[in-house]
Each structure stands twice: as C-alpha cells, then as structure tokens.
C-alpha cells in the first residue's frame, strides 16, 4: 500500500525508517520530511491545514494510510475528513485529540474516571486564578490550557513567579492557548513516559522512555522539546506499568468512548512516579520526540500492521516484539537553542556514523546535493543501542564525536539516571 507520513522531525525520520522496512509499504510519501528522510521515501509539498487538499492528494496517489507525526494537525482535526473519505489514519480524531489539545479537558476526564493526577483548578477569569494561587501558595504549576509548543507550563517555586505566570497567560503570552488556565498541585518524584497503541477500545503497551527536557547537563537551564532520551525507563517496572494501564489508560479509553470520542493512535502518558505510585502529568496524542527514536530502534515487529490496527481495530490480538537492548539518543542542536540560532551551517562526518548499532535520525536538516545543512534548533538525533544503558550511552557519544559540526552542541549526560542505577 501507499503510505503518507506527515511531519519533519526526528520522530518522523525514525517512523519513516521503520515504515519503509515494511513489506506492506509500496511508496512512502513524506510531507515535508527533512534532510534524512529523502532516501526513505518521496518528499511531497503539502499544506496540512488544507484538509480538502490532503484528501485529494491521497486519492490521487492511491494512499491508503496516513500517519500523522505531530500534534498540531491532529488537534486541528486532519484525521476526520481523511476517515470520512475511507482512508485509514494513524492518529486520533479532532474530538479525541483534546486529550493533548486541552489540559482542562484531560483534568476533567481524570476527575470523572478517578485517574490519579495532580489536584487542580481551572480558570477563565484572571482575578479568580490569582486568588486561587495566593490561597494555595508555592510551589505550584501554572499551565496554559491549549497547545503552546511546550512553552505553556511554568513550575513556580515561589508565589511571585506563579502570579507572573498567571498574568502572562491572561495577558496573551500564549495567544488563545492561554485564555484558559489550569493551576496544578506541584508533584515530586521521577518523571518517565509510557506509550500505548489504542484502537478505540483496546490498548497495548508500546514501550517506556525517559526524556531530558532541560538544555544543560545536570538538568539545568531552560526547557526544550527534549535533548535526549532512552528506552526502556527502568523506573517503570512491570508492576508500575500495569498500574498505568489499569488506573489510567483503560479508564481513559472507556471515558472517551462514553463521550462519543473513542481514542485511536498512540497515547503518550507523561508520568510522575513516587514510591512506586504513578500519577498522570499529561497526555500527548502522538509519539514523543525524541522518545520515538529510541522506541523505533528497539522495535522488532513490522510497524505497519500495528498502525493499521489502531485505525481498524483488532489491536488486542497484536503481538509486539522488542529487542532486549537498551537504546539511547543524544540530540545535537544548533548553538543558541532553545533561544535564537543561526541557520545554514554545514554538518560533516555523518558517513562515519553508519553502522548496525547506531543510527543518526535527522530533525532540522536539509540536503543540498550531497551537503547536509542545519536549518532548525534540534538538528540530529544520534541514536545507539547497547546491552545496557552504560553501553548504549558510550556507543551514542562515540558517534557524536565523529560528527564534524562546530555550530552544534549536545548534552554530555543523556541517560544519567539509568547509568547511575547500573553503577
Ligand atoms: P507538560 O507540558 O504538562 O508535560 O509539563 C512540562 C513539564 O513541567 C513536565 O515534564 C514536568 O517536568 C513539569 N510539570 C508539569 N506538571 C507538573 C506538576 N503538576 N508537578 C510538577 N511538575 C510538573
Ligand atoms: N519529548 C517530549 C515530547 O515529545 O513531548
């Protein structure tokens, strides 16, 4: 079958790499793709906001499955007209995408279904939000309700910062996303992520990972989209994974079905774990980036039947095989990221990284003839496997050190928690 993959990040390079290995995949179209995806499929220009145009392209190219990588087109409802036209989609409907598109929606679902999460208040009124924060005190967490490209969350350690964050939201710092605000109890513990493939009624566990959100070594500096990740996450032992499935994911699927918005696609649970007890921080309705890169390195099964089953049902019978290896990815970003950075620097030495135990997934790159240029903040995902976290980390940094890119940087401590546990 012909497949269309939407997106341009490291997540989409990793998905394209797995999808293109499937015997079910004839032509893989990628819109828009990046400097690394070109060799895996056919790049096409597509305005993903033009839903009628996307459906027309799928008809024209006989595309039978559309895989949506990022959250924005999902929250925008791209899956609905595709499904209405009889095209299979990996990704939830507009209604079900509210699990990521509105933090208040998810908190209300948690209330209704008794899903363990931080206590909260939901406000559309500036003065009431301030009053609540003053009564609760710090530390406290302020969240713009809608999508804010990962920037809408302030973990405030004192009252002044909390009130300033409330003011920012209501003064329009996050546009429409901040017109409603969720104020949450501050949770402590260790963060980890767990992924589930869902077909509306059933869910299967689809791997665990830990991300590194801060830009600097030792988890310092501003938040980013993610500077590296590894899988599996040792803190998510079998018993904790079962609790996440039973206490969060199955009630979520039930609650979504009850409201006529069954969830299909991948459900990404961001968790805080303390003394073996998981609480839900947030849901995302797509794979994590860079978490997807480490999951794809470990996935042994053909991914295409799994993506199709999410749309068409029957996931409960699906078998998923994973490598017992550890996978770890180091994000290389352009100097200056997550603030301003230059575009157009040249990356050399990538051919020295090709081997069986590692893979460099591209994100913000473009290919000009045989040159690779950096055109984004997060640019490369240098990914390696090993028999444990320590070995995967060593292998990944060996590859990083072969890349000749003076305008780039990376953290040198990706995987530190897992490596510490091993030593
Ligand atoms: P989110 O965009 O909701 O994942 O939040 C971004 C980051 O803020 C999370 O990865 C956590 O590190 C932190 N965070 C979010 N909510 C809470 C909370 N209730 N307590 C403590 N930290 C939080
Ligand atoms: N790496 C975090 C995310 O994709 O949301």
Please write out the topology.
Layout lengths: L1 E6 L2 H10 L8 E5 L9 E2 L7 H10 L2 E6 L2 H5 L3 H6 L3 E3 L7 H4 L1 H11 L6 E4 L2 H11 L3 E5 L8 E4 L2 H12 L10 E5 L4 E10 L3 E9 L2 E3 L3 E4 L4 E4 L6 H21 L5 E11 L2 E8 L6 H8 L4 H10 L13 E9 L10 E3 L10 E5 L2 E4 L2 E4 L3 E9 L2 H12 L7 E2 L6 H7 L1
Parallel strand pairs: 1-2, 1-4, 2-3, 4-5
Antiparallel strand pairs: 6-9, 7-8, 7-9, 10-11, 10-15, 11-14, 12-13, 14-17, 15-16, 17-22, 17-23, 18-21, 19-22, 20-21
Helix pairs in contact: 1-10, 6-9, 7-8
The structure holds adenosine monophosphate (AMP) and glycine.
The site of adenosine monophosphate has 13 residues, from strand 8, strand 9 and strand 16.
Structural notes for this entry:
The protein is α+β, with helices and mostly antiparallel strands. The protein has 4 domains: 92 residues, Rossmann fold (3-Layer(aba) Sandwich); 67 residues, ATP-grasp fold, A domain (Dna Ligase, domain 1, 2-Layer Sandwich); 128 residues, 2-Layer Sandwich (D-amino Acid Aminotransferase, Chain A, domain 1), CATH 3.30.470.20; 97 residues, Phosphoribosylglycinamide synthetase, C-terminal domain (Glycinamide Ribonucleotide Synthetase, Chain A, domain 4, Alpha-Beta Complex). Helices cover 30% and strands 30% of the residues. The protein contains 13 helices and 23 strands. Strands 10, 11, 14, 15, 16, 17, 19, 22 and 23 form a 9-stranded antiparallel sheet that branches. Helix 1 runs parallel beside helix 10, helix 6 packs across helix 9 and helix 7 runs antiparallel to helix 8. The N and C termini lie far apart (47 Å). The mean pLDDT is 95.
């Amino acid at each position: 079958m012909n497949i269309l993959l939407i997106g341009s990040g490291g997540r989409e390079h990793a998905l394209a790499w797995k999808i293109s290995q499937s015997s079910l995949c004839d032509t893989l179209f990628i819109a828009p793709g990046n400097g690394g995806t070109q060799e895996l499929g056919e790049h096409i220009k597509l305005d993903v906001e033009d839903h009628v145009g996307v459906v027309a392209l799928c008809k024209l190219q006989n595309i039978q499955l559309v895989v949506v990588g990022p959250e924005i087109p999902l929250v925008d409802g791209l899956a609905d007209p595709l499904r209405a036209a009889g095209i299979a989609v990996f990704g939830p409907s507009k209604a079900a995408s509210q699990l990521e598109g509105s933090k208040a929606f998810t908190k209300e679902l948690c209330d209704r279904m008794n899903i363990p999460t931080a206590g909260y208040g939901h406000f559309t009124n500036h003065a009431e939000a301030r009053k609540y924060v003053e009564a609760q005190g710090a530390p406290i967490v302020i969240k713009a309700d809608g999508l804010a490209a990962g920037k809408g969350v302030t973990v405030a350690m004192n009252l002044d910062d909390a009130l300033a964050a409330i003011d920012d939201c209501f003064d329009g710092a996050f546009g429409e996303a901040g017109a409603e605000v969720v104020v949450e109890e501050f949770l402590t513990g260790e963060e980890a992520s767990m992924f589930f493939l869902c077909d509306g009624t059933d869910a299967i566990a689809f791997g665990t990972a830990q991300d590194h959100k801060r830009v600097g070594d030792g988890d310092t500096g501003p938040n980013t989209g993610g500077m590296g990740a590894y899988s599996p996450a040792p803190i998510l032992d079998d018993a904790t994974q079962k609790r996440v499935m039973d206490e969060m994911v199955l009630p979520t699927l039930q609650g979504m079905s009850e409201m006529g918005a069954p969830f299909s696609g991948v459900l990404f649970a961001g968790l805080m774990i303390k003394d073996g007890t998981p609480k839900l921080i947030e849901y995302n309705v797509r794979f994590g980036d860079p978490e997807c890169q480490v999951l794809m390195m470990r996935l042994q099964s053909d991914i295409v039947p799994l993506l199709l089953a999410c749309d068409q049902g029957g996931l409960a019978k699906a078998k998923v095989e994973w490598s017992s290896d550890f996978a770890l990815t180091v994000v290389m970003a352009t100097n200056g990221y997550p603030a301003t950075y230059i575009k157009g620097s040249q990356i050399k030495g990538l051919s020295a990284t090709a081997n069986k135990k590692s893979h460099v997934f591209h994100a913000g790159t473009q290919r000009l003839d045989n040159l690779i240029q950096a055109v984004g903040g997060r640019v490369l995902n240098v990914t390696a496997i090993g028999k444990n976290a320590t070995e995967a980390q060593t292998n990944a940094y060996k590859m990083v050190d072969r890349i000749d890119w003076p305008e780039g940087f990376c953290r040198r401590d990706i995987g530190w928690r897992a490596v510490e546990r091993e030593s």
